[in-house]
UniProtKB/TrEMBL annotation:
Keyword tags: Membrane, Transmembrane, Transmembrane helix
One Pfam family linked to the record: VCA0040-like
InterPro entries: VCA0040-like
Organism for this UniProt entry: Methylohalomonas lacus
Spans traversing the lipid bilayer: 78-98, 110-128, 135-152, 164-191, 198-222, 234-254, 286-306
Protein name: Membrane protein
Length: 313
């Protein structure tokens, strides 16, 4: 039996590992300000994730429409996509039905954000080790960091509610989710469409949901291909820009924040945060700091454990 069949022990182990990584990505998507793209990068499957999205291309669509099942079934990376999506979906169910992560975020935000702050900080350390440190790449890193800080400090602007702008909002939000360091929900906040979209989900308003979903699909198809092309042809510069965006995202993920909430579809939703320094260091603040240290240590440990396997291969 070959590994690609998925029936060998190694094949099942690989799919189980992808499922676990999908679970981690889904867990990150539950946390406002953290994107699944960030978690994919931390877990070492970012480029594979983009390639899997890219595998649903025109040739696949043509095979599907022509009932060419060999192309329709064989071309996409289903061996990766299916366990990944199952893991993401399992995490969304687990952290909304079993362990209420949104409740923990609302009532104990500093420890939750502290842990993710540590994960992102640790991933930055690992990525910097892969960095060539050429001058052009340093400029890309600085430019991406400044652009990210500018974006995260934008004041939400008034925008139209027409279908064309909802379409654009969907495309930009999904594109942001693919970029490590930027969350799609944050882009919706900046475009003043966060409340609109979540209210539409709650009321099943198709006049908003249809253009938003179409825009998200268009953004997913176009932007994933652009990122794959950049990683293939300008890997170091793209890596530098990703490090810059991750560095800027620490502004939003900093565990000690002044948070502003708004009622959306009958529920409180986080709409704005401002980093602050704790005035006191009680057990709550120290717990957040401790979880940040745990997050850094966990990422560095995972990277260290993966090294012998990579060297052996």
């Amino acid at each position: 039996m070959t590994d690609s069949s998925g029936t060998s022990p190694r094949g099942w182990r690989q799919r189980g590992l992808v499922f676990a990584k999908g679970f981690c990505m889904g867990s990150a998507d539950v946390v406002p300000g953290v994107s699944g793209g960030t978690m994919a990068l931390i877990l070492g499957i970012y480029q594979q994730f983009l390639e899997a999205i890219r595998s649903f291309d025109y040739a696949w669509l043509q095979g599907l429409l022509q009932f060419d099942w060999r192309t329709a079934v064989g071309r996409p990376h289903f061996g990766f996509v299916i366990p990944l999506l199952l893991g993401i979906f399992a995490a969304l169910l687990f952290f909304t039905r079993v362990v209420p992560l949104p409740y923990l975020i609302d009532h104990y935000p500093a420890p939750v954000y502290g842990f993710f702050f540590g994960l992102i900080s640790g991933s930055i350390v690992i990525l910097v080790r892969q960095f060539d440190h050429a001058m052009a790449d340093w400029l890309a890193l600085v430019a991406a960091t400044l652009a990210g800080l500018w974006l995260f400090n934008l004041v939400p602007a008034e925008t139209p509610d027409s279908a064309w702008f909802i379409f654009i909002s969907g495309a930009l939000a999904i594109s942001a989710m693919l970029l490590p360091g930027i969350s799609g929900s944050f882009i919706l906040l900046m475009l003043k469409k966060y409340s609109t979209v979540f209210a539409a989900i709650g009321s099943f308003n198709l006049t908003v949901l249809i253009p938003f979903i179409l825009g998200a699909l268009a953004g997913l198809i176009a932007f994933s291909r652009a990122l794959v092309w950049l990683l293939r042809h300008y890997y170091q510069t793209t890596l530098a820009a990703i490090i810059g965006l991750l560095t800027a995202s620490l502004w939003v993920i900093w565990p000690y924040q002044s948070r502003v909430y708004e009622q959306v579809a009958g529920k409180e939703k986080l709409i704005m945060t401002t980093p602050v320094w704790p005035q006191t260091w009680s057990g709550y603040e120290l717990l957040a700091l401790g979880l940040a240290v745990v997050g850094v240590a966990l990422v560095l440990l995972l990277e260290w454990l993966a090294r012998p396997r990579q060297d052996a291969e």
